[in-house]
Amino acid sequence: MTEVRVTVREGVWIDEEWLRTAGLGRDLQIEVQPGEIRISDLPAERKSDEPSLRGWETFRDMGRKAKPGKLPNASVDHDRYLYGKGK
């Protein structure tokens, strides 16, 4: 067992090597309870590419609805162009 003590400043970083040592894969499940945070492998029946596919379809849809030409102040008005929020 490896024990590491950390002081939380802005968050907690979990090294990929620690995850491999624990035998955890790429898809994780995080349970939060009072006094405890538990990280475990996501059960196989819950692993799915569906969210990723939905994300790509949303991205493509943004391109289909894009206004022709160059958007003025694209970096400043990023949220307004992407989400309709802002100024």
Please describe the structure with a list of short key phrases separated by commas or semicolons.
31% helix, 87 residues, 3 helices, 2 domains, two-stranded antiparallel sheet, elongated, single chain, 14% strand, alpha+beta
Folded structure, characterized:
Helices cover 31% and strands 14% of the residues. The chain has 87 residues and is an alpha+beta fold. The protein folds into two domains: 16-46, no CATH class; 50-83, no CATH class. It has a two-stranded antiparallel sheet with strand order 1-2. The chain starts with 15 loop residues before the first helix and ends with a helix.
Can you list the strand order of the major beta sheet? 1-2
Secondary structure class reads alpha+beta
- Compute the number of strand runs: 2
- Enumerate the spans where pLDDT stays under 50 for 5 or more consecutive residues: none
Q: Given the C-alpha coordinates, what overall shape results?
A: elongated
Number of self-contained structural domains: 2
Would you list the SSEs in sequence order as H and E? HEEHH
Q: Main sheet, how many strands, which sense, barrel? A: 2 strands, antiparallel
